[in-house]
Design goal:
Helix content is 50%, strand content 11%. It has a single domain, classed as Cytochrome P450 (Cytochrome p450, Orthogonal Bundle). The protein has 470 residues and is of the alpha+beta class. It has a 7-stranded mixed beta sheet with strand order 1-2-3-4-10-7-5, sandwiched between helices. Strands 6-14 form a two-stranded antiparallel sheet. The relative contact order is 0.16. It binds protoporphyrin IX containing FE. The site of protoporphyrin IX containing FE (HEM) has 24 residues, from helix 14 and helix 20. InterPro entries: Cyt_P450, Cyt_P450_CS, Cyt_P450_E_grp-IV, Cyt_P450_sf.
């Protein structure tokens, strides 16, 4: 199933190396790096400053970050070591990469790091687990965990699978369409009933639209609440979402039988109505784009590797039940998804901020410093993976290759590790299973998806795809 020779060497080159073929790559390649030290410690300190690149004034290396994602951060690590820094759009960010540095931040015994997401993306995660810190984080996580029991997750999956069939039957056959928007729309369609307990048509669509407005604002450069701006619209959407969900909690709780996430969460003892609303809202934000990104990456690699697609389809057709037990039997899809999100990690960096002066691997990190934990870099390091650029799902069966516990962490690691990992994997595999049962697709050998990393990774060209009925 593996390509050989030149083809194998060229495979996914753009994911592990900064490109050189396009005129924009040539331009970015010539941009000045302007190396400089950050956080120079006091003269009597044994600690080292952080080496890194300032890049262009204000923009810094921001365009490199968006265009190359983890490949840029891998190159930064090669140039400066596991603790380095770069500037992007006026912000100086420390990058930690490699298993030791990542572990030093995510499992920091000194409790020197807090969630850095609010500082980077804005208030859109507020009230959700990822914006919280100890001890409130731990207390809320324990309570929210009840909504992720195996029984509850099986219920959410049941609702999603019912919707999947109906929606996928309407996808166009024989004509080219953009898979990026189709996959995002599908994720929204199957999210509303399973996560919020409302049908998609009508209020469900409005809820998802408002959530997407908040997600889009995560990358806004102009962060002012002036009418007409993305930031302003996202604030209005969030206010409406919280009000809608807050008012709905007592109604949903009184129903007592709802199987969807919002209903189950509303019945968890110890959470106030407002907490239920905020956690439900963050859950939709946390699950929508991540599962879309994982689905897109898997569809892309299945289309580039027809033998894997055939093997996965044969397994899907052979498994009759479509519940969690059935999805758990799709061993090939499990390998494919794991390998796809190794190569294209939906969340390749995790944001943290130093809450006091501290150090990582002997480098001084001052209080207030933003730190980007580059888990996506670890997933591409030749020190941790053999031929990391190659799509080779069987590597997860062979063992050893991914042996280091911090080599494969698309769901994060430590206190904030994804609480929805099981549900996320089930949702992605169930979506692919439903797709494989109906359609086949492929991408030309010469086609390499132009992944971009503005927010979560997605092909810049919309991933044009033609489906054929099987
Ligand atoms: C393939 C799909 C998914 C991926 C790749 C993913 C990835 C992640 C990552 C990397 C984190 C940790 C972020 C950090 O430490 O800064 C995280 C946290 C989280 N995820 Fe996911 N996620 C996925 C699906 C889901 C789903 C389906 C849900 C809920 C239904 C969910 C809910 C959450 C929540 C609530 C947190 C915060 C946990 C905490 O702070 O304690 N995720 N996810």
């Amino acid at each position: 199933m593996a390509p050989h020779g030149e083809k194998a060497r060229a495979e996914n080159r753009g994911l592990v190396e900064m490109g050189s073929d396009h005129w924009l790559d040539a331009l970015l390649g010539r941009a000045p790096r302007r190396p400089a030290a950050l956080a120079v410690p006091r003269a009597d300190s044994a600690l080292k400053p952080i080496p890194g690149d300032r890049g262009l004034p204000f923009i810094g290396m921001g365009l490199h970050t968006v265009r190359y994602g983890p490949a840029f951060l891998l190159a930064l690590m090669r140039r400066h070591g596991p603790v380095s820094w770069w500037q992007a759009f006026g912000r100086k960010v420390v990058a930690v990469a490699g298993p030791e540095a990542v572990q030093a931040v995510l499992a920091n015994r000194d409790k020197a790091f807090a969630s850095g997401w609010p500082a980077v993306i804005g208030p859109w995660f507020d009230g959700g687990l990822l914006a919280m810190n100890a001890p409130e984080h731990l207390a809320d996580r324990r309570l929210v965990q009840a909504a992720y029991s195996e029984e509850a997750v099986r219920g959410y999956l049941r609702l999603m699978v019912e919707d999947l069939d109906e929606r996928l039957d309407r996808w166009p056959v024989g004509s080219r369409f953009g898979l990026v928007s189709a996959a995002r729309e599908l994720s929204g369609q199957i999210t509303t009933r399973a996560f919020l307990g409302v049908p998609h048509e009508g209020v469900g669509q409005r809820l998802v639209g408002a959530v997407e407005e908040c997600i889009r604002a995560e990358t806004a450069l102009a962060r002012v609440r002036l009418p007409g701006t993305l930031w302003h619209r996202a604030h209005r959407s969030r206010t409406w979402l919280i009000r809608y969900l807050h008012q709905a909690v007592p109604v949903v709780r009184a129903r007592t039988t709802g199987e969807d996430f919002f209903s189950v969460l509303s019945r968890v003892e110890g959470l106030s109505d407002r907490q239920v609303a905020l956690h439900a809202l963050f859950t939709v934000i946390a699950s929508h784009d991540t599962t879309t990104a994982a689905t897109l990456a898997s569809v892309y690699f299945l289309g580039k590797h027809p033998a894997w697609q055939e093997r996965a389809r044969a397994e899907s057709v052979g498994v009759v039940s479509r519940d969690a037990a059935g999805v758990d039997r799709l061993a090939t899809l499990d390998l494919v998804v794991r390998e796809s999100i190794r190569l294209v990690s939906p969340s390749p960096i995790l944001m943290r901020v130093a809450v006091k002066d501290t150090e990582v691997l002997g480098h001084h990190i001052p209080a207030g410093q933003l730190v980007s934990v580059c888990t996506g870099v670890n997933q591409l390091m030749p020190e941790l993976w053999s031929q990391p650029h190659r799509f080779d799902p069987e590597r997860f069966d062979r063992g050893g290759d991914s042996g280091h516990r911090l080599a494969w962490t698309p769901f994060g690691w430590g206190a904030h590790k994804c609480i929805g990992m099981r549900l996320g994997m089930l949702k992605v595999k169930a979506t692919l299973d439903a797709l494989l049962r109906r359609y086949e697709w492929s991408y030309p050998e010469s086609y390499e998806a132009p992944w971009r990393f503005t927010s979560l990774p997605a092909p810049n060209d919309g991933l044009p795809t033609v489906l054929r009925r099987v």
